[in-house]
Amino acid sequence: MAKRILITGGAGFIGSTIADRFLQAGWDVAVLDDLSSGKRENVPAAARFYPLDVRSAAAAEAIRAERPDVVCHQAAQIDVRRSMDDPRFDADVNVGGLLNVLQAAVAAGSVEQVLFASSGGATYGDTDVVPTPESHPQRPVSNYGAAKAAGELYLGVYQATYGLRFAALRYSNVYGPRQDPHGEAGVVAIFCGRLLDGRPCTIYGDGRQTRDYVFAGDVARANLLAAERRFDGALNVGTGVETDVLRLYGELAKIAGVSRGPEHAPARLGEQKRSCIDPSAAATAIGWKPEVALADGLARTYEWFRARRD
Ligand code: NAD
């Protein structure tokens, strides 16, 4: 019989890419999402859909009734600035929502493993070592990062208390088709949208700040491998390659056939200068390596946004 997975946040950018990947691998998939930022059209037709808030009693009941083998928790408040303006709301969704899901997973009695969307940028904070390994201390500098780090600690409690296995996958900066260009998080999606509109792209500061850009399809495959290998613990899911914003813009402008340079605005307060995570543990633990090179992933992403304009 097909293994069963329930994906919270499965109408969102990454969650829906994960849903597609598990369906492709022959899993039975259910999606639970309140559509606060996700879209109904992202949910694959072959998946059952529960339009519910992860914090609700109805969501807990749906998880108990579904009796999945694996719960993949992607639902979250993902806006770092909102987490600073309204920390209680952030914790309500990102900690309270996770706890509701974990309680329901235990009550369902069927769940062997929880896959958790953690963050490689936000939980480490400013790091001493780049690329940063999993053993580096977590020193979040945002409430969003603190909630993700707390989530990992709670997962440890449920593993110790109930034997609930967990894979905390610490994503770096994820990009790809379906990312929301209006959101806060996705510079690639924002640049794609503006290049297609013929509008200038803004770079904050000198553009030398680096990030580790990982393609969403690679992130979905990491989730699948962690489930198949029944991995237990925390793993970085990134490329180990630092890319600065100037280079990112240059690559995208080339793909778009745009010759003008970016506009510059003052650096944002508190923005990290460098962020890049070491993915080598994932290769050993679950046989995962990123497969999509940046130029290829950017071309695919740009083409996806372009095709939607036709
Ligand atoms: P997204 O906004 O596209 O997806 C989040 C999904 O969760 C949306 O579909 C939204 O409707 C849903 N959701 C939000 N609050 C909910 C609630 N209370 N109840 C039910 N559903 C709710 O964002 P994404 O980029 O796909 O992020 C997915 C996960 O990956 C998040 O947990 C995020 O923190 C994590 N993450 C993302 C990145 C990145 O670069 N995008 C990096 C690290 C970690």
Describe the structure.
By secondary structure, the protein is an alpha/beta fold. It is about 40% helix and about 15% strand. It contains 10 helices and 13 strands. The strands form 4 sheets. Strands 3-2-1-4-5-6-11 form a 7-stranded parallel β-sheet, sandwiched between helices. It has a two-stranded parallel sheet with strand order 7-10. A two-stranded parallel sheet has the order 8-13. Helix 6 runs parallel beside helix 8. The longest helix is centred in the first third of the chain and has 22 residues. The model has no long low-confidence stretch (mean pLDDT about 95). The structure holds nicotinamide-adenine-dinucleotide. Nicotinamide-adenine-dinucleotide binds next to helix 1, helix 4, strand 5 and strand 7.
Topology:
Elements: E1 4-8, H1 13-24, E2 28-32, E3 48-50, H2 57-66, E4 70-73, H3 80-85, H4 87-108, E5 113-119, H5 143-162, E6 165-171, E7 173-175, H6 187-197, E8 202-204, E9 210-211, E10 213-215, H7 216-228, E11 233-237, E12 243-244, H8 245-256, E13 263-265, H9 280-286, H10 294-309
Helix pairs in contact: 1-7, 2-4, 4-5, 6-8, 6-10, 8-10
The site of nicotinamide-adenine-dinucleotide (NAD) has 30 residues, from helix 1, helix 4, strand 5 and strand 7.
What overall form do the CA principal axes indicate? globular
Kindly report the average pLDDT value: 96
Distance between the termini: 41 Å
**Total helical segments:** 10
Question: Which key features would you list for this structure?
Answer:
single chain; 310 residues; alpha/beta; 7-stranded parallel sheet; 42% helix
